[in-house]
């Protein structure tokens, strides 16, 4: 897909840039370029206030259909919005899981009552979501989940027992979408339910996981007879796998271009430092900087190919390679950043020894090839789903 921008699109770009310039200042000025990967712990309350500010301006859920509270922007205009947002240093979105994952999934599979009840809180920037997929024994292998959901017909609620892990911003979230095994004795893709679970209740314990960056945006979440009402089941019992896979398709939507603009900001910072400290004169580092620039352009063009197809959660071949590509690229950028910094990469000013931006980038990017499906799992997906190769033999359970 080759996106070309019309005169009207460029006028829209100017509108977005002007609004951001007018509003990313004052109380929101400290949020610029903050809250991205590895920095998601920063300014949580202020970034929630920013979500409400975006909503007031009509800048949340810009690609959603108007009947769901969105602006129904064209793909071109969505691309423009995400690019300008990142270019202006817009902070990491506290509402991105709700806007990019939960909301589109509810819109696609939810009842009219569920849409009326749950989508407005996302659009208004007042309700925040987290993802209950991975478990200690089911990280990249989602079909191995053991969290259980049993239906209490007398009270008309689902009771949930189990543990989720690597749950980003669970401690800041109002809701969690949970994949749980609703049919006793079921295995693999069968017998799963997709449940929407309120986080503020007895029976849910959130425990932070401290990372090598010293931050704790990831969490363990324990469910001990936690409850959610019957009307919070999305789809039917047993349809959890189908819905979960569609959600992963939404994850590879237009917002990937915003992610790439954040990557561009990081690369620009690395290049700036290379010019300032003389590292740009090293021919090997110059070559790696050029490779990083070219690699980011390839990511962009592949994203545009993804966006040329239906935006209904179906995973195209181009979408299957995206996570593997950006994870490797970003991990290499983290290493490049440290090599450009030279000895300063090993030094902090003093207690409390807070990492600078590029040190945090390097340490957090070590996880890129693991979370969201490890590189090994991504290669299996490409082999089996895109290329039609025989499935990898499974070890006996």
UniProtKB/TrEMBL annotation:
One of its GO terms (cellular component) is plasma membrane. Residues 10-125 form the Acyl-CoA dehydrogenase/oxidase N-terminal domain. Keywords: FAD, Flavoprotein, Oxidoreductase. Its cofactor is FAD. Residues 130-225 form the Acyl-CoA oxidase/dehydrogenase middle domain. It comes from the Bacteria. One of its GO terms (molecular function) is oxidoreductase activity, acting on the CH-CH group of donors. Transmembrane segments: none annotated. Residues 238-386 form the Acyl-CoA dehydrogenase/oxidase C-terminal domain. PANTHER family: ACYL-COA DEHYDROGENASE, ACYL-COA DEHYDROGENASE FADE29. Belongs to the acyl-CoA dehydrogenase family. This is Acyl-CoA dehydrogenase.
